[in-house]
Amino acid sequence: MGRNKIQALAGVDLVIPPGSFTVIMGPSGSGKSTLLYLIGGLDRPTSGSIRISGDDISSMDENALAVYRRKKMGFIFQQFNLVSSMTALENVAFPMRFAGVPGKQRLQRARELLAKVGLDKHARHRPTEMSGGQQQRVAIARALINEPGLILADEPTGNLDTVTGYTIMQLLSELHTAGRTVMVVTHDVRMTRFATHVIYLLDGKLVEREQFEAASQIPEAATQPSEGTTL
Amino acid sequence: MRFFDLVSLIAYNLSRRKGRVALTAIGVVIGTAAVVLLVALASGLQRNATNQFAGVADLTIISVYPKWEEAMMVEKVGGGGGGGSTTSTVQQLTTPVLKDLAALEGVEAVIARDSLRTMGVLKYGRLENYAYIFSADTPDYSVLGYELAFPEGSLALKKGELLIGESAMQQFMDPNWRPGRPEVKQPENLTGQQVKLQLTRWTNEGETINKTVYMRVAGVLKAKNGETDYAVVVRMDDLTTWNEWAMGTRINRNKEGYEYVMVKAVDTRVTTTLAEKINEMGFNAYTPQSFVEGINNFYTIIQIVFGGIGAIALLVAAIGIANTMTMAILERTREIGLMKAVGATNRNVLSIFLGEAAGIGLIGGLGGIGLAWLAAQLVNVLAAAYLESQAAQMGGNAAGPAAYIAPWLPIFALLFSTLVGLISGLYPALRAATMIPVLALKYE
Ligand SMILES: Nc1ncnc2c1ncn2[C@@H]1O[C@H](COP(=O)(O)OP(=O)(O)O)[C@@H](O)[C@H]1O
Ligand SMILES: [Mg+2]
Predict the structure, then answer these.
(1) pTM for this one?
(2) Which residues surround ligand 2, an ion (CB under 5 A)?
(3) Smallest Cβ distance to A42: which of B8, B335, B438?
(4) Which of B433, B298, B438, B418 is nearest to B358 (CA)?
(5) How many CB atoms lie within 10 A of CB B109?
(6) Is residue A168 part of a domain?
(7) Does residue A224 fall inside a structural domain?
(8) Is residue A95 within 8 Å of A132, Cβ to Cβ?
(9) Which of A37, A42, A98, B259 sits 20 to 30 Å CA-CA off B290?
(10) Which residue range forms the structural domain that includes residue A124?
(11) Where are the domains of chain B?
């Protein structure tokens, strides 16, 4: 990377109200993940700024950014990213290690969260012994363990069948109802049902719904990059 | 992150890759074992060498002589002034000097020495003995480490008593012996026996005058490969009387002093510094300790060289650790990304991977110490028989273990192997710590 500069996002000017459920829609390569990673403090913008409840995370040093990631947000990945050698319970408790919480407390809290996502029976299972939907629920429990105000999910249903995907969406919606700010990247239009805001991205730019729908209806006209470049 | 959590996570990460950790650690095991065993062999050699020597000489004793060679230089510079005045330039070991020596820090005892300055023949029945006769001015010779060959004797001499070396006791001659006659039968134990000491002096006219003194043998000194083996030890007052008779003058110890002085240090550790101090006072001080220290320096160099050879093996192991850690970091890139996504700081990640590398070093070090210990036992069993026969031939103390693992050695080896692991893990761990989370998470 770095040989050819790709502008994944440009001129995205956006305010997400606290307590909202924002769905980000867009074709592959439109910059949805990039936007979410930037908000999650997992990537840094080359220019511009990102403010989360008043703090500019784009100008934070590495340590402050780590603290931000630990305390303020929970990230949910399309590929779940569970540690394969750890049980469900250990996976959920894992982030609390870096928060300096004692082991006993960690496991107790993790157990509560597993119960909350309906997996109290699976605490001792390893990721390979669970279905995709169960794994994603473990990942959601993990994202919640440090009680962040912001939940970021990058295509959380992308690796799941439609029924399972729907239950995951419902789970995310519940988090929103409980008062959290939720941002979900998805291809699934059903997700917009739970949303308070929907954002459309095309080629790294924010567009209006009409413009977006026009582009999706005539795929030949849309400037879609070849499939191979998406990760 | 709590320290305990860090350590338990490191242990967990190592335990889930047991096979690879073990394979990598084998290199460290061999390297550490080589370092420990080679250094143990070198220290075994060293201990045996110093022990053998310590059996012969008391390492706390410093022999102090007047600086005669300086007197000779003065004589040469002074030209033909006659020999008479030159002796006065040499600082003698007089009674006040002895007091000064006794006052030095670390001195346990100062013992004046003198020897018979004329001919003295020891006679036992028809047998004669020409042993060296000397006196050390102490009420009890156990201070000098003397030991009795037969328990019935005593090391504290009364007037008219003497001690005889075990070898000297076997050196009696029959003046009437002629070739073809049976071998002279040597006395088995002279303790408590009466012997005659025949002293001889010559008048200015060349006449010989003999004098016979009756002496009682208070004890026989155990053979130690030392100076007492072939000597006869007497009291200083007896010796002074005989010397005064032989020279026809009174001996003034305040002026002429003693032949030489033995200074006993409280500890072998202060012997050399004490000897240096006495040298600075204007005397010649000799100590076997300086010789032993020479041996020690030699073996310290051997230890360093041997340790260095072992360290090369450890260096190879270090490359193995670096390689394993680099591989691990590639394989676990996504995991690193995840750790960062859930709030691990760069320092957390660095500590985890450094800890894993150091852990491999530690495991290898433990294994290496165990292996070296086993090997040392084997070497010792094999060498014991050989060294014992060697000691029987050469005399001195019985040989100690051929490979000696000093208490500091395992501790040092463990620290060193852990450090090797830590250093090998430095570059991979830094790479892991500075990964950009988003790139690490997308890594396939
Ligand atoms: N690591 C990367 N290196 C280079 N280009 C990248 C990288 N990640 C994403 N991109 C590019 O940035 C653009 C946006 O990618 P992304 O945010 O992943 O899109 P989406 O999630 O909407 O599919 C794409 O053109 C993609 O090729
Ligand atoms: Mg994406």
Answers:
(1) 0.70
(2) A 33
(3) B438
(4) B418
(5) 16
(6) yes
(7) no
(8) no
(9) B259
(10) 21-209
(11) 3-57+294-442, 61-286
